[in-house]
Amino acid sequence: MSTGRLWASVRIGGVRPVRLPWPMTTRELVAYLALLLGIAAATIAVAFFAATRLIEPSPWRLAPFAIALVVLSFVFRSLRRSLEPDDVQERRQTFSAQERRRRGDL
After folding, report:
1. Which residues of the chain have pLDDT under 50?
2. If you count Cβ atoms within 10 Å of the first and of the last residue's Cβ in the chain, which end, N or C, has fewer?
3. What is the pTM of this model?
4. Contact 93, 5 (CB under 8 A)
5. Quick count: other Cβ atoms within 10 Å of Cβ 39?
């Protein structure tokens, strides 16, 4: 494991912090978020194409977006499981120590 700073949550756009599935280094954080955003953007683009080109104007145009949300939830869940490192417990302990040191509790 890298000795760099570990992140357990990240603030995106000034809104509430997004909790990460495990403490990550900065490089892992950037790669993880880029992968998730890329998959989400591609899925939304495919759903938009399917809704506008394949389905005539009707309430059924919402079906590709509903299907895309279900698919994204399964893809993100399986992606998270496959990317999870073997040393998650060690990372959590290291992150806790970093936070205590940062707050001056030690």
Report:
1. none
2. C
3. 0.74
4. no
5. 15
